[in-house]
Amino acid sequence: MMGKNEDEQPSRGFKVEDRRRFVDDAESAAPADVQPEETAAAGSRSAVASAPAVEEQPHPEAHQEINFTTFVMGLTTQALMHLGEIADPDQPHAPDLPAAKQMIDLLAILRDKTTGNLDAAEEQLLASMLYDLRMRYVEVSRHR
Questions:
Q1: How many other β-carbons are positioned within 10 Å of the β-carbon of residue 7?
Q2: Each residue of 46-88: pLDDT tens digit?
Q3: pTM of the predicted structure, to 2 decimals
């Protein structure tokens, strides 16, 4: 008994053929679901205009650029949330001292490992954030 090849079996669904050309210029590439005849009939309409405009519309909650300052400020904010200084909408307001200590220690490691690689403003920011967080940690731990 002869077995049939996979190509000879009757179709059970649909077949997808990718007819896109992969080029550097995204505007010259046609979308996968547009047939060559449809592309020619589109006239002056570009392939980008017919594609969904996902990249053209900025996300309403676009994040600012990440640099050293925003990174340090993010870690500081996390530490302040763990200290109960900033309300966390997802968790109760009770301080989490071990988590706060971990964030403060992380900032201290960051300071130690970046010594000599930061400009004066970045060094000052990191030093002041560490000092402030440590003082707040001592204050919160005394009241517990």
A1: 5
A2: 444 444 444 445 555 566 788 999 999 999 999 999 998 887 6
A3: 0.54
- The answer to whether residues 32 and 20 touch, using CB atoms and an 8 Å cutoff, is yes
| Cα dihedral 43, 47, 48, 52 sign | positive
More reliable by pLDDT, 127 or 48 = 127
C-alpha distances (whole Å) from 55 to each of 46, 58, 118 are 16, 7, 35
Which of 121, 129, 139 has the alpha carbon at shortest distance from 75?
Answer: 129
Q: How far is CA 136 from CA 71, 74, 126, 129, 139, in A?
A: 20, 17, 15, 11, 5
